Amino acid sequence: MEHAHVEADWATAQAARERADGRFSPDGRFLAVSHDTRITLFDVAGGYQLGAPQVVTVGEAAEGNSMPPVVAFSTDSSVLHVLGGDGTLHELPVDPERVVPEVCRRAGRPLTPAEWQEHVGGEVPYVKTC
Q: Which domain of life is it from (predicted)?
């Protein structure tokens, strides 16, 4: 399997230097990097970060938490399972066929172009969904 160059913002890179862990999805499409209290997802083939890092540890556990979240992909690579430092288990869909309905359900409306930029990233052109 070929390795792709993946770009991240400076804050993500600095956090990764301090304490981070990464996992590739079984199909090789995604790389999930856990750092401090967040997860950052990358498109491996495209070589870019997918949206902003997602906070998965909240409350008192986030303060002084020395262990980054633990991540594992489902066998079909469609879901990222995340165990936060506060003990909360999160299931984050990563397959576009599962992400779009979830985004629509949570927002209750289509994303605005600004929300798309923040959550999906600028590498993927805006598409009105829902």
A: Bacteria
* Each residue's pLDDT tens digit, 5-46: 445 555 555 554 556 788 999 999 999 998 888 889 998 988
**DSSP classification of residue 75:** T
Question: Is the pLDDT higher at 100 or at 8?
Answer: 100
Q: Report the SS3 class of residue 49.
A: strand
- Give domain status of residue 101, yes or no: no
Helix (H, G, I), strand (E, B) or coil at 57: coil
Please give the Cα distance from 107 to 83 (Å, whole number): 24
* CB-CB neighbours of 103 under 10 Å: 19
Domain range for residue 67?
10-92
* pLDDT per residue as tens digits for the range 70-80: 899 999 999 99
Overall residue count recorded for the chain in this entry: 130
